[in-house]
Amino acid sequence: MSNPNPANPPAPRWFAGLAVFVLLGYGTFLSVYFSSVAAGSDSSGYLNAAHLLAHGQLTAPQRDFSGLTASSATQFQPLGFIAEPNRARLVPTYPLGLPAHMAIASTFFGWTIGPLLVGVGSTLVAIFLMYVIARELAIAWPLAATGAVILGAFPVTIFIAVQPLSDVLATTWVLAAIFGALRARSSQRWAIATGVALSIAVLVRPTNILIFPAVVVLLSDGWRAIPAVALGGLPGALVLLACNAQLYGSPWRMGYGSIFEAFEASYFGSTMVHFGKWLGLLLPGLSLVFGAITLGLRRVGIRIRLAFAFWFLTPVIFYAYYEVSGQTWWCLRFILPAVPALILSSLFSLDYFLAPRPRWLKIASTVIALWAIGLSTFWTREFHTLLSKTYEQAYAELGHWSHDHLPANTVLMANNESGALYYYTSFPILRWDQMSAAEFAQHAALLKRAGRPLHVITTEAEENHVLTQRIPARWKKITNLAQRSIWRYEGPTATP
């Protein structure tokens, strides 16, 4: 599993100090812009699930709706949850890997610092693993450092790293599994560690099982190391299957429901174009070129070429059939765990050609690293990535205001804010987007008779549509806050 360029001197002593300084600076930068807010579906879903785990629960009992009934349980379902048909409990939608990390960290450091430590910490570990994997592959230290810079500067990495989302953490554990597989050449303990890392990667994101072929290829003992990997992964696999059975009724079901309904062959071509376009724009352009060259270099070991191909292409091809993958640039988050394979493959090719010319290798490493930083600076500003904290703070403001100012027996109606309102308040949450006007009228009348105040939160842009067409009634505006409006139900519309 060695690079065909065996002359590979260690990094100079000053590099370790510089690397620590840069990593600490980068971690500080991410921390300044990190948002621990439960906002949209993903972040509120993960944080709500983390809260449950921190209190020793997998599910939450449904809050009191004073006997409301509905044709669909989705009306009682905040974003990030599944409401059971009998409305007895709310079940988290998302895998429990990230919530478990956040629950552990937040138990010790609180719910502001805990998620930050997980998000920023996993990003720094991913960057470190990029470097040590490159060195394990005998890539020269300047290029290995460049690979770490490319991953850290990748705009998708930054976009995910400043929010409580799972993609960077999933990437970190994938990198840990790859590193363990490389080290398993010298120790069965590393094979066991590989299984542990892979199982945690799958707990964070079940589709990370797609890197298993790459792990098998990288194991020096081939099939003989599989039992040790299986031993390391067995506890995590049992936890995953047990949680699925408890939450969704079957070890083989997940909270996403029938996910394969969202996969179609018709998405493949356009999504592959989308992936190619944005990888080419967000990474130094030579990454795609030299990554492909490595796969065709006959003098490179077949195991390396196969590992890179499996690691990168398997997730990319899988997600190319997914309807969501081609929607926008940040949908590259789905293939983020595969991006290190592309970066490492391109570095391997550069090292192959430049190792005999150390001066040119250092120049190329510097130029590519600066190229990656320049691209990151441009696209981060273009996409307003560092304003995520500002945008998402609105959800926390709404939640805190509602908790402090609305009557204790309020029932809240919302859509995009529903997961956040569940997180920040103790109110029952109704989804106005999941009911007809007639169903709303029935709910409102019952709550009125029960003496339960009913409030709705909408964006200012959609309030007219929501209040006059989706849930028509006499509403009284309470306040405007964070570009949303909060209204109290006064009664049904007057009959002509």
The main sheet orders its strands as 5-4-6-8-7
Give the uncertain stretches in residue-range form. Answer: none
Largest sheet: 5 strands, mixed
- In N-to-C order, the SSE pattern is HHEEEHHHHHHHHHHHHHEHEHEHEE
Gross geometry = elongated
Average pLDDT works out at 91
Fraction of residues in helix: 55-70%
Rg measurement, Å: 25 Å
Q: What is the CA-CA span between the terminal residues? A: 81 Å
Structural class: alpha/beta
Summed up, the domain count is 2
Beta-strand fraction estimate: 5-15%
List how many beta strands DSSP finds: 8
Instruction: Give the helix tally.
Output: 18
Features:
5-stranded mixed sheet, 496 residues, 3-stranded antiparallel sheet
Structure description:
By secondary structure, the chain is of the alpha/beta class. It is elongated. The model has no long low-confidence stretch (mean pLDDT 91). It is built from 18 helices and 8 strands. Helix 15 (388-405) crosses helix 16. It has helices at residues 13-33, 41-54, 97-136, 141-153, 155-161, 167-183, 188-204, 212-218, 226-248, 268-282, 286-296, 302-320, 339-354, 358-382, 388-405, 418-424, 437-449, 463-470, and strands at 60-61, 81-83, 89-92, 411-414, 429-431, 454-459, 474-481, 484-491. 59% of the residues lie in helices and 8% in strands. Strand 7 and strand 8 form a beta hairpin. It has 2 domains: 13-40 and 96-383, no CATH class; 389-491. The chain has a 5-stranded mixed β-sheet, with helices on both faces. A 3-stranded antiparallel β-sheet has the order 1-3-2.
List the helices and strands and how they pair.
Layout: H1 13-33, H2 41-54, E1 60-61, E2 81-83, E3 89-92, H3 97-136, H4 141-153, H5 155-161, H6 167-183, H7 188-204, H8 212-218, H9 226-248, H10 268-282, H11 286-296, H12 302-320, H13 339-354, H14 358-382, H15 388-405, E4 411-414, H16 418-424, E5 429-431, H17 437-449, E6 454-459, H18 463-470, E7 474-481, E8 484-491
Parallel strand pairs: 4-5, 4-6
Antiparallel strand pairs: 1-3, 2-3, 6-8, 7-8
